[in-house]
Design goal:
two-stranded antiparallel ribbon; 2 strands; ABC transporter involved in vitamin B12 uptake, BtuC; mainly alpha; disordered C terminus; single chain; 318 residues
Length: 318
């Protein structure tokens, strides 16, 4: 079976399982909430890879775009239908990322990383200042939505980010992104509008993060700037993507799924040590698995294929 066909079958099977799952368990059960949380991290990691994977720019801004989606949903949720609110959250994040990217993506290396880290803190403090000095409150009450609605919305966003990632990877736009990652000067000399390509891809990445924030907001009953712009939503997608690998679509999916389950287990069993364990895990991965789990899987495939070819070759000699 060809690799492309195998991947397609796995995606179709996974989709059927996700769609049929609520028919066999309660819509308000812990399992539905857990899988929605896993899908949130999968989308965040996959969308982070859209920009940072091919370009090599390490962005710590996911929490900013996630939080913009959260607050878009909190502010507009009472006056607009849920699908429109979610879309507005994504568009608002795209606009923010495009404008910020157009102005700052000339920064490289740790300077860009530190700027994106500061962007989260800047927006968080701006929102806090606005609530204290303009609205006179800190935080907002949210009318929680049915967990099943949030679950299906996350399934749709998950499929959308996979489709967009797949299309970008096989397009001239994706080729331009990979060229930028290898050498921006060479890409510019070959006719690529480097600044625009980086800004657009940064915006596309942020769009899905905004959709995710606007959707997951409906799981909570109360939000404030600290919870909406929590730096955990910046660090975790990066760690998940590195852990899973960024060369194929399944890498971030595997990494995010394992880390989300590990987080759920550790926060209940070892609430004071789980970040330490995460850190040690990442040290091991970076030291011994530079390409993440994806690299290990690809090595196993090559070894298995080589072993099968060796057996066939020996049989031919006999």
């Amino acid at each position: 079976m060809k690799k492309g066909h195998r991947s397609s079958i796995l995606i179709i099977v996974a989709l059927l399982l996700l769609v049929l799952l609520p028919a066999y368990i309660s819509s308000s059960s812990y399992t539905i909430i857990l899988i929605s949380n896993i899908l949130m991290y999968v989308v965040m990691a996959e969308s982070w890879v859209i920009f940072s994977g091919p370009t090599g720019y390490i962005s710590l801004a996911p929490a900013a775009f996630f939080g913009v989606g959260v607050y878009s949903s909190a502010i507009l949720g009472e006056v607009l239908p849920l699908p429109v609110v979610i879309l507005v959250g994504g568009i608002a994040s795209f606009i923010l990322a495009y404008l910020v990217g157009s102005a700052t993506l000339r920064l490289k290396g740790m300077y860009f990383t530190m700027f994106t880290f500061g962007l989260v803190e800047l927006i968080r403090n701006l929102v806090h200042w606005w609530e204290v000095n303009v609205t006179g409150t800190v935080g907002r009450l949210i009318a929680s939505e049915d967990p099943l609605v949030v679950f299906y919305a996350m399934v749709v966003i998950f499929l959308a980010v996979l489709a967009v990632s797949w299309l970008i990877g096989r397009s001239k736009f994706g080729l331009a992104l990979r060229g930028i990652g290898e050498s921006e000067e060479a890409a510019a000399h070959s006719g690529v509008n480097v600044d625009r390509v980086k800004a657009v891809s940064f915006g596309v990445s942020a769009f899905f993060m905004g959709l995710t924030g606007a959707t997951m907001c409906w799981r909570w009953s109360y939000i404030d700037p600290t919870t909406a712009f929590n730096m955990q939503y910046s660090f975790m997608p990066v760690l998940m993507a590195i852990f899973g690998g960024m060369g194929h679509l399944y890498g971030p999916v595997i990494g995010a799924t394992i880390f989300a389950l590990l987080e759920e287990l550790l926060t209940t069993k070892f609430p004071y040590y789980y970040m330490l364990i995460f850190g040690l895990t990442m040290i091991v991965v970076i030291r011994f698995m530079s390409s993440g789990l994806e690299g290990v899987i690809e090595k196993w495939r090559k070894v298995g294929k080589g072993g099968a070819e060796g057996v066939a070759h020996d049989a031919g000699k006999r």
